[in-house]
Amino acid sequence: MSVVEEHRGGNLTRSVGFYGLMFVSLGSIIGSGWLLGALTAAETAGPASIISWVLAAAMLATLALVYAELGATYPVAGGSGRFPYYSHGPIVGFIGGWAAWVQAVFIAPIEVLAAITYVNSVHWVNTNFAMIGTDGLLNTRGLVVAVILMLLFTAMNLAGAQFMSESNVILVIWKTAVPFLAIGVIASLSFHPGNFTAGGGFMPHGWHGVFAALPVGVVFALQGFEQAVCLAGEARNPRKDLSRAILTAMGIGALLYTLLQVTMIAGLNPADVAHNWDRPLGQDPSDYGAWYTLALAVGATWLAVILIIDAVISPAGTGIVYLGTSARLSYALGEEREMPGALARTNARGVPYISIIVALVVGLIGFGPFKSWAALVSAVTGATAVMYAMAPIALGSLHLSDGDRPRQYRMPWPKVLLPTAFVSANLILYWGGYDVNLKVVGAIAVGLVVFVVGSVVNRTHAFSTFRNSWWIPVWLGGVLVIGRFGRYGDPTKGGVQRHTDSLPAFVDLGVVIAFALVIYYLAVAMRLEPNGVNEEVAKDAHQLAGLDELTTA
Predict the structure, then answer these.
(1) Cα separation, 60 vs 430, whole angstroms
(2) What distance in Å separates the CA atoms of residue 500 and residue 222, rounded to the nearest whole number?
(3) Beta-bridge mates of residue 16
(4) How far apart are alpha carbons 226 and 25 in whole angstroms?
(5) In 106-139, which ranges are continuous DSSP H helix?
(6) Which of 89, 90, 99, 488 sits a CA distance of 20 to 30 A from 532?
(7) How far apart are CA 126 and CA 140, in angstroms?
(8) Residue 235 — φ and ψ, nearest 5°?
(9) Residue 138 forms beta bridges with which residues?
């Protein structure tokens, strides 16, 4: 089968440099998560929520190393969804790409909703231009504003990746500076070391609380480092810049969020956490958000005003990035014959405009009656964990089946860190709880129906790779079974499992780790042979051509 036959889409333009890539990843990490994540984590784990951030950073750092090598070696658009194609063929590739697209496409509306919620809390706006009804959902006026914001995000992305990434730089500088400013100001005005042992001690809910905090905002806040990979097909020098961009953004994000958690815990009024951590602010958080309330409590009124402004800019900046990267993921899906080829169509600027419009439409549908930020975040985190899990399996397989390909960056200790990264993704899934994982698996099943229909209609060879794919139902089925008997339930209800026949503490983690290791080595053993990998990679030859010249330029 020729490369010309397989190349169904248009060509992208390589115009994004190191800082554009780095700020795309960093801008994805710093969004509504910093405004809401620290308080939710403190309520769930108390002072030990600091461990939650450090643990999440360590787990995601292993995954960042994986993405750094994959992105630098295979710099193609929507790379998060393409790597499983290369290693295991169309079925596994579609599942990985679909999970990546599902988690990305709904983040833009989440961030828009967060921005509108904060603005609506301003007394004048709530009185004269209310955008949220008494039921907590967007009213007609709010929906109009939401559509306008999504259209603005779309226009910025249609202008091209270079314009989007360069415009994003200014937003990200602001988004990064404000949290660090909040840390310095609040820590200098209110820092109570005794809070770290108040309300039941440093770990009032034990390790269960530490782990339960991860899916209710901690992992969500830190995810996004891989977004630079989605723009790899438009990077000027991907082999040189991608790995540095991903690891730099991850390092800054991990440091920022850990310091934010320390600052919040120490800055609280000791009387409010003397007995428990159910209401760390002494009252329900102001509609403006926890950091706004804390800034007012310590007397930093001017900082509170800045935080209100940032409550719009941070979510909006993240929404712009995710609308664009979700379009690159559907572009990658569109390059396969099982999906509509129009998704991979580009305009004269090299922009996948059909995919961007699809992301807009699906994002608008996302303004449905979601119960809470935490509920939607937990579901998105579950889909993200599935996407993350695919990466170490893909890289471990490609080391064996495509090991001769030039690599500008190689992750350290791959025989140890690749299975560790897969285990990390499985633990994130497990801590999300059975109910959330059931929804995630259901969303994957819906995608598979679309895939099967496309394969039958277009008479593709996808089903011939089932022998490389049957570990998927074993893996996802095992995730559900372990979750059913696990200790973690709906994270929005405290993360406590509703079943009484749960696995004992830490035994459950041993079961998850052992199961994940078995699946990892089984999946790697079922990889495509070198000829099969070459065939899949050849479909993206138009994006990979000329990389040697770019690297030496």
Answers:
(1) 15
(2) 32
(3) 235
(4) 6
(5) 107-120, 123-128
(6) 99
(7) 14
(8) -85, 140
(9) 132
Phi/psi at 138 (nearest 5 deg)?
Answer: -60, 130
Q: Percent of the chain at pLDDT above 90? A: 33
Predicted confidence band of residue 4 (pLDDT cuts 50, 70, 90): very low
Q: Which two tokens stand for residue 64?
A: 């960042």
Number of other CB atoms surrounding residue 493 within 10 Å: 12
Angle at 145 between CA 144 and CA 147, to 5 degrees: 65
CATH superfamily ID and name for 3-429+529-544: Amino acid/polyamine transporter I (1.20.1740.10)
Identify the H or E element spanning 313: helix 301-334
pLDDT of residue 265: 95
Which sequence spans correspond to the domains of the chain? 3-429+529-544
Residue 361 pLDDT exceeds 50? yes
Q: Token pair of 41, please?
A: 């984590």
Element (H, E) at 101: helix 90-105
| CA–CA distance, 116 with 311 (Å, rounded to integer) | 9
State the Cα torsion 89-90-95-98 to the nearest 10°.
130
Percent of the chain as helix, strand, coil, to the nearest 5: 75, 0, 25
Phi then psi dihedrals of residue 16, to 5 deg: -105, 125
> Mean of the per-residue pLDDT values for the chain?
83
Rounded Cα gap, residues 118 and 122, in angstroms: 7
> HSE on the CB side for 543, CA within 13 Å?
37
- Predicted TM-score (pTM) of the model is 0.83
Which has the minimum average pLDDT: 180-189, 429-438, 501-510? Answer: 501-510
- 293, 286 contact by CB (below 8 A): yes
Q: Quote the DSSP letter at residue 159.
A: T
